[in-house]
Amino acid sequence: MSLDSKREKALANNNFACLVLAHEDPIHLERLVRRIGSEVPIFIHIDLKTDITPFLDIMKPHPNVQFCKRREMVIWASLSMVRATLNLIDMALKSTNETVSHFVLLSGSCYPLTKMEALSNFFRRNRHKNFIRAFPLLDADPSQGWKVRGIHFRFLADRGSW
């Protein structure tokens, strides 16, 4: 069995894929990809404000990596971040043919501490569960809440209120 067919079989047998939102540091992103491993499909969105060339170059040895073609100009905590994430999900669903049960959303600054085999086993045990971290915006740390309400939704407020 060739290395390519082994990789294809491993990718087909995996039960999760990683979605990565990145905007800087191709070297760290490549380390992240190596840590995740060649058996996990990885889908990467590079902020449209960033030159994608260094990312494409450094990822050439990683056949399990695909870059999102529908890129967004991402602004932190804005709807553009949601659009970039949805673009990744759409691409991943089409590419994995629904062979994965879970997507793991990471930033380009993340670095997994757990082994991917342990994560895969966790998702096998929890195949029909979703794990989403959420909190009411009004209960958020005031500085974070202000960033979201004051910066990204100020157009909804009266002009004198901000």
Condensed summary:
The protein has six helices and four strands; from the N terminus they run αβαβαβαβαα.
Could you walk me through the main structural features you see in this protein, from its secondary elements to its overall organization?
Helices cover about 40% and strands about 15% of the residues. It has about 160 residues and is an alpha/beta fold. The termini are far apart. A four-stranded parallel beta sheet has the order 3-2-1-4, sandwiched between helices.
Sum up the structure in keywords:
alpha/beta; 162 residues
Structural class: alpha/beta
Mean pLDDT across all amino acids: 84
Q: What's the main sheet like?
A: 4 strands, parallel
Q: What is the helix/strand order?
A: HEHEHEHEHH
Q: Tally the helices: what do you get?
A: 6
Number of strands: 4
Secondary structure layout plus pairing:
Layout: H1 3-13, E1 16-22, H2 26-36, E2 42-46, H3 53-58, E3 65-67, H4 79-96, E4 102-107, H5 116-125, H6 142-152
Parallel strand pairs: 1-2, 1-4, 2-3
